[in-house]
Design brief:
Blueprint (H helix, E strand, L loop, with lengths): L1 H16 L9 H8 L1 E6 L2 E2 L3 E3 L5 E2 L1 H18 L4 E6 L5 H6 L5 E2 L13 E3 L4 E3 L1 E6 L14 E5 L3 H9 L4 E5 L2 H9 L5 E5 H9 L7 E4 L6 E3 L2 E3 L3 H17 L1 H10 L11 H9 L4
Parallel strand pairs: 1-5, 1-6, 10-11, 10-12
Antiparallel strand pairs: 2-3, 3-4, 7-15, 8-14, 9-12, 9-13
Length: 285
């Protein structure tokens, strides 16, 4: 009996000391303790997130965090915070979240069912689709013209996955980021670079000779961008979503959009009525 009680005692102690299974993340508590919201974002995806000529980290996605998300997080934890930025790319962004190196991915990440299995997404803050950037006069006019062609994509992107699965006749060339893929196109190593249309427009605008390049093809994918966070952190997601919702309702979101995509913005790209309706439908408008 004594031996049995001893075994039971040891087991009880072990259970008491063991960490709780599948403990839910608490990003707000982490931010409250550190006073820092750390975001993973891009360095070469204008105008969403990039380092400008003054070596400043700027962009539409970053403004959304600073002006819409940050105030709601501060309200949730009851203290001022600062936003720190770390570079993230398609292959690294989910590992950065999983390892707690960043709290939020705010760049150009498409919300997909597959990704929702491992991370949670905010409300959609931008909607676009995949197209091709080519040299003017290229025979590539869309996704039906890529058989046998060398097509650059970003590693781990949704576009690369679609081409691999649905258009295996193309010669896929994967690069770590947008600048590397675009450089390969400039040097003639590939025949086209495929990415979300809005990102291609940003690269074209900043090319040495923008008139030499054109964006072609209808969308062959749907790309709703969301901000990604650790799965199951309902309080943090509520704060992020509240920031975006308030931005939609107050009109602040559309002011930020106009700053970056309006006629005088970094990349003129008027919002269509269809896209505006898509965004507002998320909040019941």
């Amino acid at each position: 009996m004594k031996r049995m009680l001893s075994v039971i005692g040891i087991l009880a102690l072990a259970l008491a000391l063991a960490p709780p299974a599948q403990a839910q993340p608490d990003t707000l508590a982490k931010i409250k303790e550190t006073g820092v919201l750390t975001i993973g974002t891009r360095t070469g995806s204008p105008p969403f997130a990039y380092v400008n000529k003054n070596n400043e980290w700027v962009g539409f996605s970053i403004d959304l965090v600073e002006m819409l998300v940050k105030p709601e997080v501060q309200k949730a934890i009851g203290k001022p915070i600062k936003v720190e930025k770390k570079e993230s790319t398609p292959p690294t962004r989910i590992p950065l979240l999983s390892s707690n190196a960043v709290d939020l991915i705010a760049g150009t990440m498409t919300d997909t069912p597959q990704r929702r299995e491992v991370v949670d997404f905010s409300l959609t803050f931008f909607y676009t689709g995949a197209q091709f950037l080519v040299k003017k006069g290229s025979p590539i006019k869309g996704v039906n013209d890529i058989a046998g062609k060398r097509i650059a994509t970003q590693q781990a992107s949704t576009n690369a996955k679609i081409l691999r699965e649905k258009y295996p006749q193309a010669q896929l060339r994967e690069f770590p980021d947008q600048p590397a893929a675009f450089q390969a196109l400039l040097q003639g190593q590939v025949d086209a670079f495929t990415n979300d249309g809005i990102q291609l427009a940003g690269l074209k605008a900043k090319a040495p000779n923008p008139a030499e390049w054109e964006i072609v093809g209808d969308f062959y994918s749907e790309e709703p961008y969301g901000m990604a966070m650790r799965k199951g952190d309902t309080k943090f997601k509520a704060a992020v979503d509240a920031g975006l919702k308030n931005g939609f309702e107050s009109g602040k979101y559309f002011e930020i959009y106009e700053k970056w995509f309006g006629p005088k913005g970094e990349l003129p790209y008027p919002m269509s009525a269809q896209v505006k309706a898509y965004l507002l439908k998320q909040i019941g408008k």
